[in-house]
Amino acid sequence: MASMPPARRRSPSAAPSPDISPADYGPHGSPEAMRQFAQYMQQGMAMQLDAGTRDLLRQELRQELRQDLRDEIVKELQVELREQTRAELREEIKQEIIEAEIKARVDAGLKSRIEAEFKACVEAEVLKRLRVYIKEMEMARRRQFGRSTETSSAQYRLFDEADALAESSSDADDQAELPEENTRTTPRKPAKPRGKRQPLPADLPRVEIVYAMPEDERTCPCGCTMAEIGESVREEIDIIPMQIRVLRHVCKRYACSRGDSAPRTAPTPLQVLPKTNASNNLLAMLLTTKYVDSMPLARFSNVLARCGVNAPRQTLARWVIGAAQALQPIHNLLRDHLLDSPVIHMDETTVQVLKQPNKKTGSPGYMWVQKGGPPDKSVVIYDYDPSRSGKVPLRLLAGWQGYLMTDGYEGYNAVGRTEGVEHLVCWAHARRGFVKVVQASKGKRGRANEAMDMIGRLYGIEREFADATDEARLEARQSRSKAVLAELRDWLDKMLPLVPPKTPLGQALGYLYRYWSRLVRYVERGDLPIDNNRVENAIRPFVVGRKNWLFSDTPAGAHASAVVYSLIETAKANGREPYAWLRHVLQRLPYAKTADDYEALLPWNLSALELVEEAIRA
């Protein structure tokens, strides 16, 4: 075996040599030796490359490897992130589905609950409004068909604004129905005593119809003739239907047979409306039917048509306006008497006028009503004005000084601030707020009853001294009424902080508090009124008439209504029958020239009996 060659020193960077001898590199070497030899040669060549190239290659390889690793890592991260995101999204979607389902169920339940609550609220509100509507309907029906007084017990009837016209009927059936036999009956309350029939007026004309037995029936069974020993009398009310006749005024003309003088014509009665075929009596009846009986002109036109007279409504309207213009001097004279009164009552109410200048069609106007004068010379004045402002009462009462009684309407404040005018406020209006509260309580006693009790005591004192002198009434007011007022004021001061102001009781208390200083002034004198009922009673006929004729066509018609209502209500206030007085006035009105002539036509200057007898003779 050949010996080994000597060992050679290698540089540290040299590639390791294969574990073969140089002889193995020859052509007769083994294949393994040849392969190792080739590898060795390659390594040797690689070792011969410079260091810079190696570094460059290394960096390139490093970058490629880093990029590959980055791509692999990114792919792995993307896969992992995708899986994580998918899982998170799955959870989120699942949670959203669950929340949506829960929300849907909650919304469905909430919606049904809200709908149920809303339905309940609506039903409650509808029921509440229905109750209010029913109550308003009952109050409206009571105002229209029931008693006009505000009563809640027998005690409160002491201060009714107006007494009822009739407490019981005297024309009931003569015989009451009897229950059938074997029929159970419940005990009834004791019946009110029947009213006593009032005698018929003595000034009505009477026609006697005498009934006597024939002589052959006056023979007694004993054979003697029966003698008259007395008589029984009963009276019946008879009526003669309205008759329409034509008055032919034939004026004879006379001339001198010698022709020495001009012809003369016999004088005829003067007409209120010349050049018309309306007699003064017809005008009196026309005004009475419209303003006393509240009959519209169209209806009276139909009445005339049934009697064969064609008088259209427009013609009747012109006659009414013409008659009112002729009666205007009496209206002016009545106003002069009104302004001489130390106390004037005043109130206003609406009237619809269709054709008003500078106002919309159908806009409301106002009737301003004033009442004054002593009991034996009462004056009622109506005035029409399209406005409700405070300027109207200022104009109507210009120059007047005294005590003015009104309700709480603020339009009267300007008059109340006028020098010499003392403003009073009506206790009946202050009481009405408490009456509404009591009526709404359905019999339960509350705070409003306490106020009504004290106000009732005030009216009880007034009722007790209604027929007394002013001095006696003043003494009673100072000694008794002022004590009740002090008690009522203490109660009012205690209630105001306890009751909400917007409630019905709070509004009643607020009204009482706001007008207290004007409410209590009536105790200063014995001739001052406690309320405004005098003028309110004078307004009622107008309100009744308004429900029938509804409106006036023009302001001229409204002014005419004001004039005629003034005259008729003044006549009624002084106990004069309206038709008889109007007939008397219209017959003499064309001849009146001076203030004394018109003064003689005022109601208190004429006897009621004479007026009726005069109308009957006609």
Automatic annotation (TrEMBL):
Compositionally biased residues, Acidic residues: 170-180
Region (Disordered) location: 1-31, 166-200
Coiled coil, from the record: none
InterPro entries: IS66_C, Transposase-related, Transposase_IS66_central, Transposase_TnpC_homeodom, Znf_dom_IS66
Occurrences of domain Transposase TnpC homeodomain (ranges): 137-209
Ranges of compositional bias, category Low complexity: 1-23
UniProt domain Transposase IS66 C-terminal: residue ranges: 566-604
Ranges for domain Transposase IS66 central: 276-559
Domain of life: Bacteria
Domain annotation Transposase IS66 zinc-finger binding: ranges: 217-257
Pfam family, one: DDE_Tnp_IS66
PANTHER family documented for this protein: BLL1576 PROTEIN
Alphabetical list of NCBIfam families matching this protein: transpos_IS66
Protein name: IS66 family transposase
